[in-house]
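Reproducibility note. Readers wishing to regenerate the assembly model reported in the main text can use the exact inputs given here. Chain order matters: entities are listed in the order in which they were concatenated for prediction.
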Amino acid sequence: MVRLRGNLIVGQSGGPTAVINNSLVGVVREAMQQDCVEEVYGARWGIRGVLDETLMDLQREHDSVLEGLRYTPSAALGSVRYKLKEDDYARILEVFRAHNIRYLLYIGGNDSMNTAHRVHQLAEAEGYELRAVGIPKTVDNDLIITDHCPGYPSAARFVATAIRDTGWDTESMGPSSPVKIMEIMGRDAGWLTASAALARQADEDAPHLVYVPERPVSVEQIGQDVLRCLEKYGRAVIALSEGVRDETGEAIGAHQAAVEIDAFGHRLKGGAVEYLGQALRDIVGTKVRYDRPNYLQRCFASEVSSVDREEAYLVARAAVRDAVAGRSDVMVTLVREPGSEYHCTTGLAPLANVADAVKKLPNDFMNEAGNFPTEKFIEYARPLIGEPLAPYVRLNRFFIPKKAGR
Amino acid sequence: MVRLRGNLIVGQSGGPTAVINNSLVGVVREAMQQDCVEEVYGARWGIRGVLDETLMDLQREHDSVLEGLRYTPSAALGSVRYKLKEDDYARILEVFRAHNIRYLLYIGGNDSMNTAHRVHQLAEAEGYELRAVGIPKTVDNDLIITDHCPGYPSAARFVATAIRDTGWDTESMGPSSPVKIMEIMGRDAGWLTASAALARQADEDAPHLVYVPERPVSVEQIGQDVLRCLEKYGRAVIALSEGVRDETGEAIGAHQAAVEIDAFGHRLKGGAVEYLGQALRDIVGTKVRYDRPNYLQRCFASEVSSVDREEAYLVARAAVRDAVAGRSDVMVTLVREPGSEYHCTTGLAPLANVADAVKKLPNDFMNEAGNFPTEKFIEYARPLIGEPLAPYVRLNRFFIPKKAGR
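Running the prediction on these inputs yields the following structure tokens for the assembly.
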């Protein structure tokens, strides 16, 4: 087979993750081993860097920098959220021609896969030989066909440990402050919110309730669920997706809409957690606390999953090999091998398919009541988050007889 | 010297920390080595457990439980926030007499030291021989006399790493989303907020601005500071104390007061971060993001400082030895040894002094502008947070010449 000679460009797109730089390093290292790849360029700020021709030579980076990037969260090239306009595609091809770029490796989610797909289509239409291969990345875990998306396992590990620890905090404050909500990322899919259940050792551990966008729920129902947990455990720690919907299908808190701010006369939008917190105070009559770790979910390096770090690296190397082998208009996928020991290999999916779809939590990954993940979800997700977490312990509480009256 | 024979009680009070159980274990293990201490009791839910006589036998706990507690965040006995009433003190003494409790070891902050002090006073007035010794604990680090408070170093390490990581996240999103605020605990003292500066490797790293309660600042001034950072670094990541005050001395956001909620007709209080975020959007004209890790700051076990874990244990052992040696109405302190290598021994401070005071950040721990900690603060705090953090790396960014026109 005659391999396509030319230069390669890699870009990072969308929200960064704690391991996305592993995919960048994987591309660079694999590309440098391929004779047909001449120069290895990085696009500054994703596709914007292509449009305005802000390209970096990645082969000149010292290997100590590349190795360091494997432990540095966030997108080292700079990322972007930019919706391409129609003329942009022609401009991309113009830049590719000027620099003899024959390989496009694009790391991102659905939108990024759509970008890579569109560029491939235009190149084909114009007879410009190009290999466009997508590398999956999203903490939302909502790309189809792939078993899971690099970036998700580390975010899941962070969420699992964060809700575990804040759960123990809640437990130790006892009846004075028994309800806590953690708001978790994921507007349309509940994968990350469900992962809150992964660090639980016992029934009484947090989270006690998990609400995801796939399963609409009324505030009144949440209130009833919380009352039941208070009865049973003396506390209720809730993992709440930012995208959770009420029985009418509207995002919880959305109709609360706005807040008047005296000094500026602005309207400030509150989120699901503020709204639900206030409502629960009324229904259950206790204090309600909340945590909103927001961006920490996708960048917290000390909770990176070792499985995720390695897979983010491997999918990128596979992507370069596939491109060099002549594949284009595809995204590399993770394919879980059957068997009891967790192991993934890589596969391929058409970019067009991936770009158009969102993978929701399957119905049987949540219980019937829609308020907790099933064992099937746990079996799916637990191998992804890496090393087992150190167990926490409770006192046995050997109470002694009272003898001081009252 | 004739040592006071009798039983010992230990309690945990106020907000838990990631290492407070080390102080509990320190008390139990040291007490079990002292012949004059007969039984070792734990009070369930702090002083409430004494009032309602809910006491646990801690000597029956297996050593594997005690060892496990050293790595378990939150207060294993259960904690409490309860302001004692006048008659409560007599009841405490009643319970102590009934159980022959002669040693009170109380782990907490100012309020807890006040409790221990008052119990000591009443015992003395009634001729009941009692040793009351306080063990410092607070992520706020605001107890006087002691060099620092166990619990603070671990919270500081979490805050430093969290703002570092969210800073890299902000950096990688570039101009599309260049301002981020992290709200940090500490209503009256800026110790924890200042610790955001501890993980910075370079000038351009987060945080770029740090605002503490000790240094009132106008929203307009913050806006100017942010504009300057955007000019200089292209981004501005802000560590904002929840207790930061404006030029009138009022908490920022306090007068924003309330939010109407349609469905329930409630008023919901917004915090400093929402208010400032909205104001900055107006002043700087960019997106403003924020993180509010709330309780994660005091419970996140995977960012525990190894120094803190050990010191929380040592102060507790020292407290028992001091009590057995006849001291009472004192709190154990950490005393930093002079010399280049960090090392602390323990000392003692009168409970009454500690109970009445709050240690603010010294003036020379913040710069003149009041928007960043000084090197003096860094020198004070860095040794506390334990092992050095793994360095992160940036690409050198070897840009290549443009050749595609436009």
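We highlight two features of this model. Chain A has two domains: 6-151+302-355, 153-298+362-385. The domain at 153-298+362-385 of chain A is CATH 3.40.50.460 (Rossmann fold).
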